[in-house]
């Protein structure tokens, strides 16, 4: 499955371009701009599985820094500061990673 199976390519490109500058990433705005927030929980779970590159059932810090590249190869890596902030926003149980339910909550609350 590809990200464009769930989200419109134009929306992904627009959202990734909006956060091209270092330390500009805002997950709440990004999830709205790319159209993910408006999708069903099932679609959010599909996106989670795409972003969970190692299929561990979690998006770990190493995968979080690549989140924009998960949406499109043209995306940039998040900075350490951005990755830490995203992890803090999504990791509700404090285990250092984001599970599928935490991801759905993170997107829904955006």
UniProtKB/TrEMBL annotation:
InterPro entries, per the entry: EF-hand-dom_pair, EF_Hand_1_Ca_BS, EF_hand_dom, Parvalbumin
Top-level taxonomic group: Eukaryota
SUPFAM superfamilies: EF-hand
Alphabetized GO MF terms: calcium ion binding
Keyword Metal-binding set for record: yes
Chaperone is among the record's keywords: no
Amino acids binding Ca(2+) 1: 52, 54, 56, 58, 63
Keywords for the protein's UniProt record, in alphabetical order: Calcium, Metal-binding, Repeat
Membrane spanning stretches: none
Cellular-component GO terms for this entry: cytoplasm
Annotated residues for binding of Ca(2+) 2: 91, 93, 95, 97, 102
Domain EF-hand: 39-74, 78-110
Similarity comment: Belongs to the parvalbumin family.
Its job: In muscle, parvalbumin is thought to be involved in relaxation after contraction. It binds two calcium ions.
Protein name: Parvalbumin
């Amino acid at each position: 499955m590809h990200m464009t199976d769930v989200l419109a390519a134009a929306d992904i490109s627009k959202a990734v371009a909006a956060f091209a500058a270092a330390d500009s990433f805002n997950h709440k705005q990004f999830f709205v701009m790319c159209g993910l927030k408006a999708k069903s929980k099932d679609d959010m779970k599909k996106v989670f599985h795409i972003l969970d590159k190692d299929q561990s059932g979690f998006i770990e810090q190493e995968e979080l820094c690549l989140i924009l590249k998960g949406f499109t190869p043209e995306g940039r890596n998040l900075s350490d500061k951005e990755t830490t902030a995203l992890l803090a926003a999504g990791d509700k149980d404090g285990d250092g990673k984001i599970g599928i339910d935490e991801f759905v909550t993170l997107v829904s609350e955006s």
